[in-house]
Amino acid sequence: MSLAIDKIGLDDVFYTVSGTGGDIKKVLIVDDEPTILLSLSHLLSSPAVSVITTGKIEEAEEALLTHHIDLVIADIRLSGVYGFEGLHLLEHIKKNSPSAEVIIMTAYGTPEMKEAAYARGAYHYYEKPLDINDLLQKAEACGIPIPPPGRKVKAVRPPHNELKDPGGKQGSFQF
To answer: Within 10 A of 118 (CB to CB), how many other CB atoms are there?
Structure first.
């Protein structure tokens, strides 16, 4: 299986891993930690799932306006001054893309924040560290086909990328 990374911006950490095939589901992952973006995108990517990731709320809102998103997985705190940007994004999603399900995650959870997330329409709320198996089950319950464990994923990286291996070769990841 080959997954192509369409766009990568090093400063804004925004890229799309595209699946191939007919009815492709789209997942938007919003977190300011690049390792979370990369890990979740590789876990969810498949020929049936296209994953868009970003660390900025403005880019998440743009992606929601330009793509039909089936599932959003968003961190509440995105390096912003307010500390609850994910809740603002949740309101934006429910207003502009009401059919999209939203899973909220945070490393700074409180009972009040959890209540606020559910009150704004979150499908599920996680406190980090995430239980990946449970997250994958929740994504599957939202209609996202989950790739089988142990598959090999070949990532094709664009030429001008800090993540590219020194020889400019394609990377292979085992899950």
So the answer is: 14
